[in-house]
């Protein structure tokens, strides 16, 4: 939707609201990303103008489905997970020496962006500052940054340019929690420290939102040790939307934002709220040299379909080495998934909510009256899907379009004469055309199904 067609733009909406607290006091309803989430309660509803604006800003993201997360920092030099500093109790003075050993290849991000594109990912989200506090850009607010230490380059600039060169949307991860800054912990108990640290934090975010052109996603993380009030998160979001009217923000500065962020699991949000499941490819976000617990291309393709079934996004992480190169198992799996998406993308991108769910060998997505059956364990030449409530008009293999024979009764769609072995890898997709939106009954055991000698 064109921004001009919206009666009240976000900016106008925010300007008309003035201060969040004043608006609340006057009983005005704030846009969801502005309002503080009531403890344990559902996120507040958006008014019509804010909802329309949110829909406009999020359109590309919903269609995108698949993004690349990148965790990269001084911790990559250690190669023992991005939490090494805290987990191992490494003193700040010792940890910050890692900067002298952080010398990534020039333009390492180009290879990430090329891989993301080949993988069928439509956007990227890079750690601009993780919990360790090291800033990957040319900031005026600290010398603990890549422009003044280590590479002596603006790595955010290189990343932004690389993503744009491949036609990908640009996201910034930003950790509010900071283990390096002197006020990063004491801000919880010392008001002067809080004010300094909030000014610093808002200032860093302001730089990120001002100096790199249009940014598509701001991905906050960990708001320890302050509450959203302490961080002045409403003011923070107001500044962000003021500088970047088209941006979307997540929910990790303590406000609902535009989307939720289930981590390391896939779970749809209630009430149609947008969500993105973020996940590692092994067990670590940052580079962990000997973590060999890699997900296969099949697992990734399955997870992607699981997200798509409930119209969620999948943000899949790479943890580059300190020189910026990508671990080989990540390259292999992402390349395979990308090739699979080139053939089967119709069953993932821009699909609609799908109620059908039950199978021991397949996942499901839907577009209109077409049900896509994602067979991760190929069932062989003769198999069934139970409980479909619609009349099936046709069935075919998605790749190549070969028609499949079938019979249907009240309980079973029975497919026969399919290939004995999986025609596509790592997942074979079938397209089943129904006479209406495909649904499935969900009882665990179908009590009314005829049993031997009964009900026939
Ligand atoms: C957690 C971890 C962090 C990681 C993030 C990704 O919050 O603390 O290391 O960046 O998850 O979602």
Encode the helix/strand succession as letters: HHHEHHHHEHEHHEHHEEHEHEEEEEEE
Ligand list: alpha-D-glucopyranose
CATH classification, class level of the largest domain = Alpha Beta
Described by the principal axes of the CA atoms, the overall outline is elongated
The poorly predicted ranges are 1-41
What share of the residues lie within helices?
25-40%
Would you report the number of β strands? 14
What does the radius of gyration come to? 24 Å
- Biggest sheet record: 7 strands, parallel
State which percent range the strand residues make up: 15-25%
Structural class: alpha/beta
Could you tell me the mean pLDDT?
A: 91
Strand numbers in spatial order across the main sheet: 5-4-3-2-1-7-6
Notes on the structure:
This protein is of the alpha/beta class and 456 residues long. The chain folds into two domains: 10-35 and 50-347, TIM Barrel (Alpha-Beta Barrel), CATH 3.20.20.80; 362-448, Sandwich (Immunoglobulin-like), CATH 2.60.40.1180. Helix content is 29%, strand content 16%. It has helices at residues 10-17, 20-25, 48-64, 75-78, 84-87, 92-95, 109-118, 155-165, 183-186, 191-210, 228-231, 233-243, 297-309, 328-344; strands at residues 66-70, 123-129, 169-175, 217-221, 248-249, 276-279, 313-318, 362-367, 370-375, 383-386, 392-397, 405-408, 412-416, 428-434. Helix 8 links the parallel strand 2 and strand 3. Helix 10 (191-210) runs parallel beside helix 12 (233-243) and helix 13 crosses helix 14. The longest helix is centred in the middle third of the chain and has 20 residues, at 191-210. 45% of the residues are buried. The chain binds alpha-D-glucopyranose. Residues 71, 82-83, 221-222, 263, 278, 285 line the site of alpha-D-glucopyranose. Alpha-D-glucopyranose binds next to loops.
